[in-house]
Amino acid sequence: MDLQLRDKRAVVTGSTSGIGEAVARWLAAEGVVVVIHGRREAEANRVAAEIVAAGGRAIVALGDLALDTGAEAVAHRVNDELGGADILVNNAGVFPQSAWFSIDAAAWTRLYNINVGSMIRMIDRFVPSMKRRGWGRVIAISSIVATMPFSRSAAYAATKCANLNLTVSLAKELAGSGVTSNCVSPGMIDTPGVEAMLKQIAPQLGLPADDLTAIREYAAKNLVPNPSARIGQPEDVAAAVTFLASPLAGYINGADLRVDGGTVPTIN
Question: Rounded to whole angstroms, how far apart are CA atoms 211 and 263?
Fold first, then answer.
């Protein structure tokens, strides 16, 4: 299937590893010029070089999106090199595991700035030009914990819920403009961060920390039980994002697409 994405320009924040890297690779495979973003220059250059070596097109934009200066640096780089963006995938963020009473209100605020403020900074810098051109795609990466929170990730879950809310309000703001705003909410995905977390808790579960296969199987059965009987891969999320970024998804707007293997036990 031709997703009609050739020559579109996409900014994928936090694309030096995990879900963001997979999204960038999938978009590039569809002919999209992708902007690899992150704070680690060596990793950003690696991803971009591998995409180019595979026949794709990519540039690197570095910047800390928790700061206005970092967001501005990314915007300048994209505008100077590509003249703007048609697709914005807001993936950058952090995933702390913190018990309810182990962090204070200031820590909640800092996390909100990273996981929500970064999205707003990118929307402010790229979406107005999409609106003027009459076409664009904004995709936020949220999480199933936005609607099914766990106690050890309360602050994180609250930011992911905010991601859902801003997705819908942005869709309404952009009504009739040709720019859509959607959200993808992954379940447990086998990223480097999740792998590190599972290794850390493995001894508490009576599992050897070096047996990733056993840990993954345990997680799929007990931590995030789902009808697909496995934890997800970054490519599972990338496939959904790539479709939502395409012209074929023009009538999907203000939606939350769960990519969780069926972990959340509801169709709503």
Answer: 23
